[in-house]
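User: two proteins, same treatment. go.

Assistant:
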Amino acid sequence: MCDEETATATEPSSPPPPVESTTKDKKEGGGSATDVLSDYESPVAHSNGSQGASTAMAPSLDKETASQQVYAGHDEALEVQQQPKGFIDIWADNETEGYRRLKELLGDENRKWYVAIDTEFCMKDGVLSPQGVPQSADAHYEQARRIVDEGDLVQVGFALVDSRSGLETESFQVFQFNICFDHTARSSTSTNIRFLEDVAKLNLADHATRGINVKNFICEIKGILGNKNIIWLTFQGYSDLGYLIRVVQNSCVLTPSRREFIRLAKGYFPSSYDLKLLLTLGIFCQKPSRGVAGSASLKGLASSLGVERSGEEHGSGSDAHLTLGCFIRIMLSDPAAASELRRYKNTIYGVENPLTCITDDNSDADHVQVWASDFDSQLAIISCSLHPLGCLLTAEVQLVSATINQPVVSYSQARAEASQCKADLALGFSDQFGRLAFGRIWIFHVQAQGAGDEEKGNRINPAKLAELLTRMKSLQNPNVSWLSSNRACYLYLVSVLTRCLPLEEQEFFALWNLFFPNSGLIEHRSPEEDPGRRAIITQRQMLGNSHFQ
């Protein structure tokens, strides 16, 4: 990272830090910060992790930081090194295994990922530090070109987490790629080299002898660029994206056209968020104060969010880990955050202006599959999904091997099937504007009532689902509006709550009105069988109905 804030500060009593040199955090005024989430009042509890440099320069780790052994020896094994939990340090002698692991995770078409990226680099000697914050998009891009043109990549870090997981910090995975860089080709007085050695504490001798060939690196990771299942995260990302785009383009310099750069960035990174933009605008975080040094940096953002440092500063893996942690903290700060953040999607801080409006039909919502094994990990987030002043709860059900899914079924037949069939129940929580809580639809895979052990598998016990609905205070609550496209959904929910539907249909209607006093049917008769996608259609129909607005 390179921060605009630092460039104007000097310290007469001691040599100023070589802020113009290498890392993005120099842009931010304090150097890269790599903090991890600490426990606080978010829906999800987090635990610590950290990052290290090279074998010879491995950082000393906090006692609370878990370490992992990474095995060494040949192309297919990772070297022995003290690293924070979830971090993998990758050099030329273990790059094959590093690429394999990374592509195995990100290549899974059934999973969506949040991937934070950070680069450490060495700018061309003689390039002056940016003086102050550029005042236009073109000036920002000219600064990006000065930082990137003819510079060298030294380290690239990826921090990733499955976007449909519980988003716990311990599930973060970090890949730190150490690129081949010959520091002896630079002047011995280069402030860029001094920064890498003295501040970032990189072992540049290792980078010269064990570093990964940058062309091999780009060739291997090029396949994950453009992946629409990845949401890329940066902090003041024009230098990170700039270096990668420049190398992918096999060029020594960036395109002179800002618009062309934006086009390339959107091609390689089609879904992205820049946290510097969110910080500058104060979106679900505290806006930086001019009187507080470093408040506009990643370190300042982490401090305001209560995100603690883990590992050494100025390491790309550590910075990426911190960026990911800050984004997840923002995401979990408010159920409406995921929908609200879409206003700023695909907007690179500085080089383009944020959009002022958004059309959000929730078509890109995450569909989170909930089974018995991960029910508890999702429970904390789900429990915080109801808006305190009111909520719209969209529900759809698909009963496995049942005729109840059809619009016209007799009550007696529906009554029997509701208690005998396994079910896939979709629930989506939104506010009055239709913004989905945490940008998610949850699909609960529920076992049949009274199922034997051999039939249960990994499906959820209906009693746990009933307990969840009760804990959320979503029942008998006039402030919660329930919606579905089929009365079979209400019939199934009543059967879960009562464990046995009444014999008479009129009694069922009485229970329906008791549990769901503010409910409606949106009979769009969509042929869509997937309950998650059908829930989105139902909600979309609702948004066009003034009765529910």
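Protein 2:
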Amino acid sequence: MAGPGAGALLSRWVRRRPACACSLLAALCYLNTLRAGFVYDDTRAILTNGDVRSSTPLTALLQHDFWGTPLSHGGSHGSYRPLTVLTFRLNHALAGLRPALYHTTNVALHAVCSGLVEAVAGLVGRADLLALLFTLCSLLSYARQAKEQGIAALPLCLLYDVFVHSRTSMSALLTPQRQDKRLLRLQQSCALVSLACAALLSARLSVLGGGGALSSALTLIHLPAVSVGLLLLPHHLSFDWSDSALPPLLGPADPRNAASAALLLGLAALLFAACRAPAETATNNNNNGSSSSSKPSRPGGHSGPGRPGLLFALCFSLLTFLPASNLLFYVGFLVAERVLYAPSVGFCLLVGRGLSLLEARWRRLGPALSALLLAVLAARTLLRNEDWRDEQALYTAGVPYSPAKALGNLATIMADRGRLEEAERAYRAALAVRYNMADVHYNLGNLLYSQGKYAESTQSYQKAVGFRRQFAQAYLNLAHAHIKLGQSEAARRVLLACRDLNGSRIRDPRSHTSARVSCLVELGRLFAEKENDPPQALTQYQQALELASEHYHKETIYNLIGEAQYRLSNYDEAEAWFRRALEIQPGMVHAHIFYGKMLAKNKTRMDEAEGWFHRARTTAPFNYVVYLHYGQFLYDAGRLQEAAEVYLRGVELAPSEYDLTFNLANVYRELSQYERAEFYYRRATHIRPEDVHSHRNLGAILHLNGKLQEAEAAYLTALGLSPGDHVTEVNLARLYNIMERRGRGQRAADGK
């Protein structure tokens, strides 16, 4: 006789091991997420979150929110999930920043929970996975324990006890009891658990710092309807449901109120169906150790959860959804698909109840419909997982539902890949949908700045600052654009404004503080280089050092303090600061250069000074700044030929660098190589046509080369740039004398 076929064996295994079958199927649906990368919020939650790295003390996880911001900071999100961050930390310890292990962990957790929502593909959804995992573990553990321990259980455990295990009706539970000790114990448990929930809610609100309603009660009521719609028909899915995707309801006439009304009526109908008839109860006789029970009747005689089970499933969904519904407090978002992960358990129980009713009446319809639902939803899950493969796929899929944020994020990806024209169009399209997005204005400014469109970039940065007054990085980049445009005073005003930002409610205080430190550094450089005010520069650098966190590259500030002390002729202090910078970063070229310049002030340490210039040249052989300062050192030492060779190498590396070109021309002039000097003076006038010195020196070298007409033109150009310039006027007068003498001699020769 032939043995059972493979299909029969599989069917038998599924019936015997339903939990394993569910876990296996759940894992299979998310296997294609294992090749996905870090996307969307994963960047901030993992890639830039210092709490994920072992260098951060473990105690910080108890003091920081999910994103690594101190809970005491005014800008903290308030999302307190230390256990989730700890699992990220373990992943990082094992795999660094390779995403495969992170996704594998999520899929494994999902297999255990056996749920089907989008919290699996996005790594930040691990908090929802863990929340459901521990909720289910506590519930299953409680279901196996004696009822007397129910006084310490959480609400879901209590609901399980009331509606599933004891099959107590709502009316019986709400009726005062004195004789029935079992019901009395349940009522006492309900009261105690309610007090415990109130305490937990109070603690949660204290972490969040309170909460508030959205624009209107109608919008608040509509948000759960949107979430239920995503559970019922997960067709339109998005990585973000912000106000542009879910604008506030306009009033009672808004057609979206129909969905809210349908939700409320549906909940009322389910509650009525679950509570309209008392359920039969089970009894226990602890004296004789025996028990007798009468099973409640079920429609159609089928097996499965009765009305108490229906009420439990409904309460499971409501209780797990309520904390993320914005009805108690604002949770930082309007709608998020990942927070439907735990409520989906109750939803699946409700769907299972409905399918069992269908199977009782039409035996083949229930299993067929179950198989169809399973196939359709599994296919939808696999397709949606592909959207989470990388950020471009995710944001492209989100354009129809959240166009402003999706287009802004897509534009950033295009800019990173060098598709600058497409990126600019995408940024402007995003702003056309929603104009007040500070991040998009800022990113557009960065794009324009990178293309040399400094004037346009200032407009974008100003709008970013206008929409977000505490946007320190936008202030910093706006100042950079003003400096590029030669607007030093405007840059100084912007940097001073950035310096005075308080950042009390900034979501990312570390980045904000780093930007403010950079503003102080740039302000110091402005005082040092543009305004020639070393004392003011030193003050800004010292403030930057006080503000800088341990994550900031302090060697830069040390070096700048050394430069300021050098300009103030405080050479001992300068040397100490240069050495501190070089201890942290031995390859710091600017520290090498200024240390060498400082040592050169002491004629007894010239060889030591030149050694630092050689180190700079070895460290950065293609950095033209090294050749600029080393050439000046050789020039000051009277080693003109060597200086010319060093300057020439610098000009080869940076042909458009004015100081190198001008200095090389000066050295050739002193070496009496006038033709070469003329060549480089001409180049200097093309590089910086508004500079009087290059035109004046070009006139002088043309004068020496006997090109008197060209010399006159160069002198006149210099006087046009700087009227009354004494040196130019003296040189021009000498030129005219020579030209006059030559003119008289020519006329005399013609007379003969």
